[in-house]
User: Fold this.
Amino acid sequence: MSRTPLLAANWKMHKTVGEALEFLDALLPALPAEGPEVVLCPAYTALAPVVARCVETPVRVAAQNMHQAESGAFTGEVSAAMLLDLGVEDVILGHSERRALFAESDEALAEKLPTALEAGLEPILCVGEDEAQRDADQTAEVLTRQIEADLAAVEPEHLDRIVIAYEPIWAIGTGRTATPEQAQEAVALIRERVATRDAGAAERVRILYGGSVKPANAAELLAQPDVDGALVGGASLEAADFAAIVAAAAR
Ligand code: PGA
Assistant:
């Protein structure tokens, strides 16, 4: 089964509109003509201008979060319809920073996933264990729990429309990357968990690795048989670095 690699740039709370457009001026000419899918995830404020600049390019645009409700009294939140209205095609859900700092729960994610799919957005669901859980040998248990809880309301035949990102929390923004073997082992385990719901979808679903991916380590991580791409934070802020990571996947 050949799965098209996907490289996503998670800019977190970085880049004004001007900085985002400057990045695109540098990135777009540096992308390989054919190759992996590229998704940029700017802050809400830069979504519309980034979408406009990426029209007629292969680059897709994702939001970093969304609310599960259609509309309502949810100050500060954004709905799937609002994202679609801007031409956004993907949405990161369940990033560990949202889980840890903004009380994102598995219950909310279980609603967000089907909501995003019904709206026609491609969700990028993040899962991963923290350092204490890894040290206590609980990685498999944590990943299983997150996958089961977050995907509970997704119909089995829709599971392959989701992208899953394995992001060990101890590797995010720390400069400490999972070894290629650790990444492969966890990603394969996630695929197995999806297979318990639908074996065909598990073959097709793309599972990324995220956590201190940079040009120097991208190739070995992306070479793992079950790793279908990367979700890149810090190293996605510089166009040259992100282009080098995309190129590593194109090889
Ligand atoms: P990092 O972040 O590449 O800076 O470790 C990855 C992420 O949080 O998605």
Summary: The beta strands are 6-10, 37-41, 60-63, 90-93, 122-127, 163-166, 206-210, 229-232.
